[in-house]
Sequence to fold (356 residues):
Amino acid sequence: MIPVTKPFMPPKKEYEDYLKGIWEREYITNNGPLVRQLEAKLKEYLNTKNVLFTSNGTIALQIAIKALDLKGEIITTPFSYVATTSSIVWEGCTPVFVDIEPNTLNINPALIEASITEKTSGILATHVFGNPCDIDSIKSIADKYNLKVIYDAAHCFGSLYKDKSVFEYGDISTASFHATKLFHTVEGGGIFSDDDELIQKMEYMRNFGHAGFGKFNGIGINGKNSEFHAAMGLCNLNFMNEVLEKRKHQCLRYDDLLQNIPLKRISIENDALWNYSYYPVIFNTREKALEAKKKLEENEIYPRRYFYPSLENLDYVETVKMKISNDISERILCLPLFHELKEEHQLHIGQILTSI
Ligand SMILES: *Cc1c(COP(=O)(O)O)cnc(C)c1O
Fold:
């Protein structure tokens, strides 16, 4: 069986070494030493000014929206994971979808201005599959209309834009360290911003607003993460160079194996260095995509329709159809991609796709 993804598992012994320390200290959560160590190492590895380790990537988004005090309408992309839209609605705001650019699959900056109204307070865009958005264009629109920008950078571990971590852009960027993501802490997420004051505010928000015992600095929620999750992150971080290198290899091998099939790949944004976190392929028709999925599944290979459906189809949002996002979501598959995926598996996948 070949799944679409598998979590990276570090050597068990290395995790057990961290467990020893946890048992000695008997301190298992609430901003413990391993959480602080992971944050320090992440900043160093990614070269970011700040990071807050959170319990997942969705709470990171919700805290970001809350911390920037976004109200009314938030411009967003329909081509993302459901958490991007649901977080907006959860925070009492209205998502206003802007269709995507068909080559990068990221929000199309040329269409944003037409959707701005008096009620617009921010833009929440996803760097789809770790491929950075057209950050400069989005920034100039945001500056012109005085809008805040949040990037859902869930997929972006290791991606660069203009030689800096993608996490350094926007007022706030959020990451997911879920088990299915390139770098994971089992469950987990990250909040990034170079605004120290904003980071401090979100640090309070992550911990109920606690400012010492019995004192509170504003409203908060429980977005903390534990020593056990931090330990997994610390173990995995040591392997990230290897993981990133391997992904690139695997993606280039797919490129090679599938070169004679009429499949479209995503175009990487100018100025970006991509992390090869997913291998999406776009078929000419929905029928072809579903046929490919069926054929692969008959061979116990499980690609995923990702992202599907286009988010304007959610029954709790009211909007018009997003033509491009909706069309692509019907025709796209992400092929299996994970650290242990072998060359022979990729060859097999290549043969199957060539035969249809
Ligand atoms: C995974 C993901 C999230 C949610 O992250 P969790 O850590 O699972 O809460 C949000 N947005 C995108 C684009 C994702 O892929």
In short: The mean pLDDT is 97.
